[in-house]
Design goal:
heterodimer, A: mainly alpha, three-stranded mixed sheet, 3 strands, globular, B: two-stranded antiparallel ribbon, 52 helices, 2 strands
Chain lengths: 238, 1025
């Protein structure tokens, strides 16, 4: 295997990776002046009003469909088995190489997610494992109504045909996941998906630290501003 | 029986008694009843016994007697005799060595030894008991080591003379300690050996001496659980490291041996090696280090270039930096010889940029540069020409980004280095001038490259431009580097970004703003003269209808208030803008945004200080005119509730900080306002609607009342105010902002201004104690609110007498079908944080008030809930949740057994109105899972099922669903495997539905939660293997 360019793959800086925040600035901007304001219950709120919360619920429930960015977020954090880097930062998975196809007929509920994987080199021996990792991740993380199709991007791997066959074959994938050492490699790759986000801080303790925050004179002042627009103390009509 | 016979009899059975006997002998010696010769003779026969224990005990007896003998009892001659006697035992009888050593220690305490005695003791031991390891008992060796340690600490010169008089002494001394394994003894040996290492000329025996300690490297010792001596591995490591780093003579052995161990596969060994190398670099002479500097670089660079463990890389960087620091004190030749290969290799990596190696090269150059200005100069001269050549030669953004990354690291190290040297040199900046000098040759080029990257770089290249912005900021921060014109150029570019960047490049704008704020610290005039005009142009007097483009400008402008030198300019310009906008009737939103910016400046910025408080003139010149205008001019943006609220906050910030005297002046000026507010609130005709009474001043008044010191407001005034507020709260239809202001003022007044003794009487006279206020016949939303506002203020100060009336009354009302739920919801407000009820606002905040709330409410509820009617049960659960959601975990913890069943019932509250209760409950349950998973174990089944129910889309808000999934995701990790595995199949199946939740944030949690449950299986499998 030609190791040269595989040792030094191009690394994409985290701030250049596609993210929902940058691609869809449609949501209301959070200004500097309305920085985090914990909405504490106050006496002026109506002390009981089931109707109000029901009304706000329907607003909340505007459906957000699963889109390509969401699929990307699921798989870009997988680690490369060789480098301690994520597939996203290595450019192995790219937003533009993810496609979601709607159900083929009106009666079917089955959508298809297609992911094209770009190996770091055309001769990368671990291409199959990477493909397998992406597939396993999506099968576990997407609802069952999605069919997952992971392929090697045409022209990027010398073994694309073989690998695609392997990844497309349910039986073969199942057989691969029986292989202990392979399962371990895949688990290792997927370990970074959750560990970075899984919070291990106790919510109450965190809350308490936030509250004691206000004991400090300067930060007390800082807290004053948070509710300067009064939103959490004042009723909607205001 | 003689003393020795008694002693032998008791020695093994009763140690205190044996010691008493020895002391008795010593006493007789002192009183001359017993002669020393007789004592020795009496021991004599036992010393010849064939039985070792008897001989051992006899010597012990002698030692104990000597220990108990006061100095001066024995003559010089007698002590000499005893020394001869004991040393002869040492020479003749190895089996009694431990007691002999202890007897010598006792003898030494009686009087200082001379050179001859010390020499004899030392050589007797070396000649007759070498090696030490022949003695099997740890305690025997310990006694000998204590004796030798004593010799080396008290008679260091005599021992050194032994070494200098004979070449054979040191080898014997070193080998003497060979093979010791006991940690307590090793601690002493390391300390003994440090004496020759540091103080003697050991060059001919350096290797033996080094090996004697390095044989123990790395220390892998783990103290046994019941270790009586409490020696830790860390103590051994530290002492061993001190030995290795003790003398430059060790360098030829230490560096190869340490680097050899660096290849170990154990991370801990590598950590110890790097730590030891750092000690060596700091301990050895620069001349010695220079011989190994390149070898060390060649070995250590791999830890950074092929990063495995971040902490190893950091330690390796520390070593490289320490070497440079040491060599900088030596000849420039040695420093150059060290830096040359580093610069060469870094240049090679930089050519390949961007790679992990080029990033690592940047890190290396940065930490080495930081070691001294001289080093920094050499690095700059060695790297930057090549770097800029590559930069000019390449069009690739990726490549240029990689190069800027390295450049930033180097520039950053010169900022650090300059600030350091400024602290060190009081006048004249020789060193910093030197450092800036080396960078100065490249500053123009660096500025050009970075400026072009920021201004002309493609908009989509976020990281590239971010790095360039950081680079510009750093260049501006290197003192004496840039001319004012150059800084102006940077500031203009950054301001352009703030003004022009599109919304989806928020990262860039945030970075540019931060850079400007940083630069303001160093060049306040340039910011004031160049950034302000450009920004102010974008702040119109009247913006176009619907335009919000002023927001970002205003945010950047407000942040500049962080620098004190331009704070005043910022707030004056904002004030002028507000006046103009109000005058020209600009949209309310714009005026309010300007007010918010002003509040931000005062709360987050750096206003000037006078007599340890914010300067009062801000109030007189700025805030007070605004307040007057707000109250006088109706129909203007300032007169709105939000406008008054913002102005109130400004008053609070400034007034709060003033001393008593100034506060009392301000108090006098607000008398009129207080009276007006009270008059308007006293109108008790319930037909009067909100619009008829002008309550606008009630909001600013709240903030003044919050800001005043406790002793400032006379009780009578407070009483009147409370009376008016209670009346207003009960009998007037106030707009909700005014109503909230009144209620919060009630809490403040009962907390701050009424003395504890009069509280009961005052509240009674106002008829706001529970019997009248909370009687079922007159109960209303208003009376419940007022009740909670009063209770909140009283609870914070722990006023038991009144709390004992309010809280039980509220709990009683929970069973009321009509008002029960309103009351239940009120409980959540009691402990909810309120930014005005704070220590800074001089409130009385009792340390244990949360504990008190818990004790007065929770047991009563847990009891009542058992017997209550089904239809009011949710009320109790709501009240309970309202209290415990604000409590620190430690308060809840002791009551978990009774609370957990109730918490689980909270999750059953199906009605949509209870969503917030569910969310709060899940938070508490999550905390329990984190801290006391064992308490949950028996409830696993009901908890898992209820949480799964909470993930259902139609029945729960997204917040509840996400919280439930988070909590559920903890269960596989926190509970016992055998408890959770039975639920795995069910959980993963039902969680598949959550993967298709309508909300993205919920789906994210579902994925995490489900992976946690799926990973259970693997654990099971691994166990089976």
């Amino acid at each position: 295997m030609d190791n040269k360019d595989n040792v030094n793959p191009t690394i994409i800086n985290p701030s250049d990776l596609p993210s929902r925040r940058r691609s869809a600035p449609t949501t209301k901007r959070v200004g500097l002046f309305d920085s985090l304001a914990p909405a504490y219950p106050s006496l002026a709120e109506p002390l009981s009003s089931p109707e109000a919360s029901e009304a706000s619920l329907s607003d909340d429930e505007e459906a957000e469909e699963i889109d390509e960015q969401e699929v990307y977020d699921l798989i870009s954090t997988i680690s490369d088995p060789e480098h301690p880097l994520s597939l996203g930062s290595l450019g192995v998975v790219k937003l533009e190489d993810i496609a979601i196809l709607p159900p083929t007929s009106a009666r079917s509920r089955i959508s298809t997610v297609t992911v094209l994987v770009t190996p770091t080199t055309s001769a990368c021996s671990l291409t199959t494992v990477i493909g397998l990792g992406v597939k396993v991740r999506l099968v576990n993380a997407l609802p069952p109504r999605f069919r997952i199709d992971v392929r090697i991007k045409p022209g990027t791997s010398s073994t694309a045909g073989e690998v695609n066959k392997q990844l497309g074959d349910k039986e073969r994938v199942a057989a691969a996941m029986e292989n202990k050492s392979l399962v371990n490699v895949v688990n290792q790759m997927l370990a970074t998906c959750e560990s970075t986000v899984m919070s291990h801080a106790c919510p109450i303790c965190t809350l308490v630290t936030q509250l004691t925050w206000s004991n400090d004179v300067s930060s007390c002042a800082a807290q004053l501003i948070r509710s300067v627009d009064g939103s959490e103390f004042l009723p909607d009509s205001y | 029986m003689s003393d020795i016979q008694l002693y032998l009899f008791e020695a093994d059975k009763d140690e205190p008694e044996a010691l008493r006997i020895a002391a008795q002998t010593a006493d007789r010696l002192q009183r001359k009843e017993l002669r020393l010769v007789a004592l020795i003779e009496s021991i004599g026969e036992y010393l010849n016994s064939d039985e070792t224990p008897i001989r051992t005990k006899s010597i012990r007896y002698l030692g104990d007697v000597l220990s108990a003998t006061p100095p001066k009892v024995l003559t010089t001659q007698q002590r000499g005799l005893l020394l001869d006697f004991i040393l002869s035992r040492v020479a003749d009888d190895n089996e009694t060595i431990g007691p002999s050593a202890r007897a010598l220690l006792a003898l030494e305490r009686l009087s200082r030894w001379d050179k001859d005695a010390v020499g004899r003791v030392m050589t007797t031991f070396l000649d007759n008991t070498n090696p030490l390891k022949q003695f099997k008992q740890q305690s025997e060796r310990f006694s000998i080591l204590q004796l030798i340690d004593l010799l080396l600490s008290k008679y260091r010169d005599f021992i050194r003379a032994l070494h200098e008089s004979s070449n054979d002494f040191l080898p014997a001394f070193i080998s003497y300690f060979d093979g010791e394994k006991d940690p307590r003894n090793l601690m002493i040996i390391f300390s003994i050996l440090q004496v020759p290492m540091i103080e003697w000329d050991v060059s001919s025996n350096a290797q033996d001496l080094f090996d004697a300690v390095f044989n123990y490297f790395p220390i892998t010792f783990k103290p046994p659980p019941d270790d009586p001596y409490g020696i830790t591995a860390q103590q051994l490591k530290d002492r061993l490291r001190e030995c290795v780093a003790a003398t430059s003579d060790f360098a030829p052995y230490a560096f190869p041996a340490l680097l050899d161990k660096l290849d170990s596969s154990s991370i801990n060994t590598k950590r110890d090696v790097l730590h030891a190398i750092i000690s060596c670099i700091e301990g050895y002479e620069a001349r010695t280090i220079s011989m190994y500097s390149v070898t060390l670089w060649d070995a250590l660079k791999f830890e950074i270039l092929n990063l495995q463990e971040e902490d190893l890389a950091e330690q390796a960087l520390e070593v490289l930096s320490a070497i440079a620091r040491q060599l900088a004190t030596n000849t420039s030749g040695s420093l150059n010889a060290y830096l040359k290969p580093i610069i060469k290799e870094s240049n090679e990596h930089i050519e390949d940029a961007p790679t992990k190696q080029s990033q690592a090269a940047g890190r290396i150059l940065k930490s080495i540069s930081k070691s001294s200005p001289q080093v920094c100069d050499l690095i700059i001269k060695g790297i930057l020409p090549n770097l800029f050549m590559l930069f000019q030669a390449s069009e690739s953004i990726a490549k240029r980004r990689g190069l800027i990354e390295v450049l930033n690291e180097i520039v950053e190290s010169s900022i650090y280095d300059v600030s350091q040297s400024r602290e060190n040199t009081t006048n004249g900046n020789h060193e910093s001038a030197l450092s800036a000098g080396a960078l100065r040759a490249f500053s123009g080029e660096a500025l050009d490259a970075l400026w072009r990257a920021v201004v002309n770089g493609p908009r989509s290249e976020v990281s590239f431009r971010l790095l360039a912005i950081k680079g510009l900021e750093q260049l501006a921060r290197v003192p004496h580097l840039l001319s004012d014109q150059e800084v102006v150029r940077i500031v203009d570019a950054l301001v352009d970004i703030i003004l022009q960047e599109e919304e989806n490049q928020a990262d860039i704008r945030v970075a540019a703003t931060k850079a400007i704020v940083d630069i303001a610290r160093h060049y306040p005039e340039i910011i004031a003269n160049h950034a302000f005009p450009s920004l102010m142009v974008r702040l119109p007097d009247v913006p176009e209808e619907g335009s919000t483009s002023y927001e970002v400008v205003l945010e950047a402008f407000a942040q500049l208030s962080a620098e004190n030198k331009i704070f005043d300019t910022v707030v004056v310009r904002l004030k002028n803008k507000i006046n103009a906008a109000v005058h020209l009737e600009a949209p309310h939103a714009y005026v309010l945004a300007l007010l918010k910016a002003l509040v931000y400046a005062f709360s987050n910025g750096t206003p000037s200080v006078e007599d340890e408080a914010i300067r009062l003139s801000y109030y007189d010149d700025l805030v007070q005119p605004l307040l007057t205008r707000a109250l006088e001019v109706k129909n203007c943006a300032l007169h709105t509730e939000m406008g008054l609220d913002a102005i109130g906050r400004l008053c609070n910030i400034i007034v709060q900080a003033q001393g008593f005297h100034r506060q009392s002046q301000i108090y006098a000026t607000v008398q009129r306002m207080m009276k007006d507010v009270q008059d308007s609130l006293r109108v008790s005709d319930s037909k009067t609607s909100a619009s008829d009474v002008d309550t606008s001043a009630t909001i600013p008044l709240l903030y003044f009342i919050a800001a005043f010191r406790r002793e400032l407001v006379p009780v009578a005034d407070a009483h009147n105010l409370l009376a008016a507020d209670c009346n207003g709260a009960l009998h007037q239809q106030l707009a909700s902002a005014a109503q909230l202001a009144v209620l919060r003022r009630v809490s403040l007044v009962v907390n701050k201004f009424l003395p504890p003794a009069s509280l009961q009487a005052v509240l009674e006279s106002l008829e706001v104690l529970p019997p009248s206020l909370l009687s079922i016949s007159s109960l209303s939303l208003s009376s419940i609110r007022l009740g909670f506002a009063l209770t909140k203020g009283l609870l914070l100060r722990n006023h038991h007498a009144t709390l004992a009336q309010y809280l039980p009354a509220f709990i009683q009302l929970l069973s009321e079908p009509e008002h029960g739920q309103t009351v239940a919801r009120g409980f959540a407000t009691l402990l909810a944080p309120d930014d005005l009820l704070s220590k800074e606002n001089y409130c009385v905040i009792a340390g244990l008030h949360k504990q008190k709330a818990f004790n007065m409410v929770v047991p009563a509820i847990t009891t009542a809930v058992r017997t209550c009617e089904v239809n009011v049960k949710p009320n109790y659960l709501i009240a309970l949740s309202g209290i415990i959601r604000w409590l620190p975990y430690s308060i809840i913890e002791p009551e978990l057994v009774s609370l957990i069943p109730l918490l689980l019932q909270c999750l059953d509250l199906a009605d949509f109105a209870y969503q917030d209760i569910k969310a709060a409950t899940i938070t508490v349950l999550t905390a329990v899972l984190m801290h006391n998973p064992d308490k949950i174990d028996e409830h696993a089944s009901s908890l898992i099922n209820r949480l799964l129910n909470c993930t259902a889309v139609r029945l729960n808000t997204p917040k509840v669903r996400a919280a439930a999934l988070q909590c559920l995701g903890l269960i596989p990790k926190q509970l016992k495997q055998e408890t959770v595995i039975p639920f795995r199949r069910q959980a993963t199946k039902r969680l598949a539905a959550a993967l298709d939740d309508r909300k993205r944030d919920v789906r994210v949690e579902a994925v995490k939660c489900r992976s946690a449950w799926m990973s259970l299986d693997e654990v099971e499998d691994e166990d089976a293997e």
